[in-house]
Amino acid sequence: MDDALLRFRDDEPHDEPAVTLDAFLGQSNATAVRLEAGEDARALLPQLGQLALVEVSFPTFRDGRGYSAARVLREAGYAGELRAAGDVLVDQLPLMRRCGFDSFAPEAPIDAVALRRSLDRYDYRYQAAADATPPVWKLRHG
Question: Which residues are within 8 A (CB) of 15 and not within 5 positions of it... i.e. 6 or more apart?
Fold first, then answer.
């Protein structure tokens, strides 16, 4: 599958290796950080402006803590690349995009046809989220 389908940004991918959260907090020049499951995304809030990439680890598809990390970062105004990495499944991508993820590094290949079907499955959303998709009630009532 073409990797471009797993990136939903117009800018170039960030190619600097992501450092651990501890390493990032201990140095001032890194622009990419990796959050492991269970690490608090709020620790990054004071330095959001210097980050070009935050990679959030999904060690297993059943671990949803990364969704919360994405939402915290986007609601705080983080506009850089937010990448979900690890055990990311095709049916999770639409929900991850709603939380603010805009690039994906899955462990297993994702079929392009299955990805397109997953992303196009629903025409409307019922609640506001971190993405720019307006909820259906807003479309109906302005």
Answer: none
Q: Please list, in sequence order, all residues whose beta carbon lies within 8 angstroms of the beta carbon of residue 10, skipping any fewer than 6 positions away.
A: none
pLDDT tens-digit readout, 32-91: 999 999 999 999 999 999 999 999 999 998 899 999 999 999 999 999 999 999 999 888
- Residue type, position 133, single letter: T
Could you give phi then psi for residue 106, rounded to 5 degrees? -75, 150
- C-alpha–C-alpha distance, residues 88 and 96, integer Å: 9
The single residue listed with the structure tokens 């004071």 is: 46
- Residue whose token pair is 């259906």: 136
Domain that holds residue 56: 3-141
